Amino acid sequence: MAEPAAAAGSAADKAAGAREDPAFGGGPAANDLVAAVVGNLRRVVHASDDTLRLVVLCLVAEGHLIIEDFPGVGKTMLAKALARTLDCSFSRLQFTPDLLPSDVTGVNVFDQRTNEFEFRPGPVFTNLLLVDEVNRASPKTQAALLECMQESQVTVDGFSYELQRPFMVIATQNPIEYEGTYPLPEAQLDRFTMRVQLGYPTLAEEARMLDEQTHVPPLDALEPVADSEDVSRLAAQARDIYVEESLGRYVVAVLRATRADERLYLGASPRAGIALLRVAKARALADGREYLVPDDVKAMAVPVLSHRLILGPEARAAGLAGADIVTDALEKTPVPV
């Protein structure tokens, strides 16, 4: 794990023009730091600013991210760019059908010199874990991530080991290729705070990307603008964002609207509501506010809730998606004044 830099020359100081925030002990203001991270990602990944901002908000909300998109649009590049931007430790796991749970979490190895078992940590002992093609591993191996994502710890042979903080899983998935894959169970999807899609870049952006990647790839020259300590401070500030009681009830009302929708087999869970509120708080922080407003909830509802819903056959036949159901739920739910 990267050591926090000294206050006089920390990585966060590279965020040009950053205002100082007393709550950060003289560090850059939260909204400036989020903007600096998004700007750094934009140098490498040619996606919309809104998408890149969602990735950063997921990190600030102490959540986990699934990127579902076509091959070759920069899913893996985005994860690598985020790790370099934050100067955090980074591990990559290529999920394959023969991967074992111990390849993920670690394993106890017998040491003949001491006649004792020694724990060898797996790739999950890092700050940012990229799980490439998460649906290609067996359900048993996929399940090895459940405890890591929910409790930030690993239990091997009855002993629990805490993971580093911050800890974030970024999983990628190809939505059009199903041969040799194992669909993620609902219990695992529900542990992913957010799902995003990068999409194809515009004509001008794609042409610029071709020139960059065939000349000097920008990822090679990317410098960090924050470190793990900055991320922890942002997460702590996001947790302290004030939420009026009526807004908490508004989140619950949106969840219940999905559960009552006859087009769904399964609506949003209470864990989905916790994730939605956390990401909404992160958005308020990134906007420079110390309090939540209804627009924070409405803006985050689709990326946080849509992948958790299970549609019935009629809804699928009608061409509906989870995002459509969430949008309908928002429209039907009265907004607190």
Description:
- By secondary structure, the protein is α/β, with parallel strands linked by helices.
- The longest helix has 17 residues, at 270-286.
- The protein has a domain at 241-337: Helicase, Ruva Protein, domain 3, CATH 1.10.8.80.
- The protein has helices at 30-42, 49-60, 75-86, 101-105, 139-142, 144-151, 186-189, 203-213, 228-239, 245-259, 270-286, 294-305, 313-317, 322-332, and strands at residues 20-21, 27-28, 65-68, 90-94, 106-111, 116-121, 128-132, 153-156, 159-162, 168-173, 194-196, 264-266, 310-311.
- It has a 5-stranded parallel sheet. The chain has a two-stranded antiparallel sheet with strand order 1-2. Strands 5-6 form a two-stranded antiparallel sheet.
Mean pLDDT: 86
Query: What is the tally of beta strands?
Result: 13
- What is the number of helices? 14
Percent of residues in beta strands: 15-25%
Short summary of the structure?
The chain is an alpha/beta fold and 337 residues long.
Looking at this protein, list some descriptive labels.
two-stranded antiparallel sheet, five-stranded parallel beta sheet, Helicase, Ruva Protein, domain 3, alpha/beta, 337 residues, 14 helices
Topology, pairings included?
Layout: E1 20-21, E2 27-28, H1 30-42, H2 49-60, E3 65-68, H3 75-86, E4 90-94, H4 101-105, E5 106-111, E6 116-121, E7 128-132, H5 139-142, H6 144-151, E8 153-156, E9 159-162, E10 168-173, H7 186-189, E11 194-196, H8 203-213, H9 228-239, H10 245-259, E12 264-266, H11 270-286, H12 294-305, E13 310-311, H13 313-317, H14 322-332
Parallel strand pairs: 3-10, 3-11, 4-7, 7-10
Antiparallel strand pairs: 1-2, 5-6, 8-9, 12-13
